[in-house]
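REQUEST FORM: STRUCTURE PREDICTION
Request ID: SP-0412
Submitted by: Lab K.M.
Chain count: 1
Length (residues): 75
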Amino acid sequence: VLYQVFSAMIDDLSAETILKLLENQDTDVMPFGKHQGKPLSEVPRSYLKWLKNEGAFDKPENAGLRTALEKIGVL
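STATUS: Completed
RESULT:
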């Protein structure tokens, strides 16, 4: 079922665009939580510290977020 959903979502995209999307896991906005949609630079550091202490950045699905925060010197 997941394959069918994924296939339907990417049906109109070129192979190059799909590969680019899969490679680009960095983000410049907070993807979840009470600060969702805010630029990372505007998310309170105390909130990011709390997320780190809770292990949120250790999850594979948050690897891009961790990388982005490391690039801007937050983590």
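NOTES: Helices lie at 2-10, 15-23, 45-54, 63-71.
Reviewed by: T.R.
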